Amino acid sequence: MRPVLLACLTTALAAAAALAARRTLHVVEVHGESMEPALRSGDRVLVRRLRPGRRVRRGDVVVITRVGPGEGFTLDGGTNLVIKRAAAVAGDPVSPEFEGSEEARVPPGRLLVLGDNPSRSTDSRQWGLLPESRIAGVVIRRLHTR
């Protein structure tokens, strides 16, 4: 293969990989204390967008849209994205301490999210079970620590 052709092919593959990564991954900055000690305000996290058909697993740290598709409610608070931990997913039992939930188990298409710092978090204890359609992505790793 000629060197010029090889260089063009390598550049095209790198561009395609970068484009695919931009569609799949994004960076979110953490604001607030609700996920301490795991995540602190100012941390940046790498988030994988949730593709159709992909499920959130219990324990995943998820990014939630405050104003999202369907289900007719807006989560209170500041920024447009919220980071919480998926405490229970479809089929898991719902703890009776969650007021407003008449479900014994998390129904399909819903999940229960909690902040790691309960005294500084607004989460499913106030919002109830969230629709999975509100999940923008799953945190893969922290990029920056203060």
UniProtKB/TrEMBL annotation:
Residue ranges constituting the Peptidase S26 domain according to the UniProt record: 12-95, 103-139
Primary location class: membrane
The alphabetical list of record keywords is: Hydrolase, Protease, Signal
Task: Name the membrane topology term.
Answer: Single-pass type II membrane protein
| Signal peptide limits | 1-20
Which subcellular locations apply to this protein? Answer: Cell membrane
Superkingdom of this entry's organism?
A: Bacteria
Q: Which family is this protein grouped under?
A: Belongs to the peptidase S26 family.
Output the PANTHER family linked to this UniProt entry. Answer: CHLOROPLAST PROCESSING PEPTIDASE, SIGNAL PEPTIDASE I
| The name this protein goes by in its record | S26 family signal peptidase
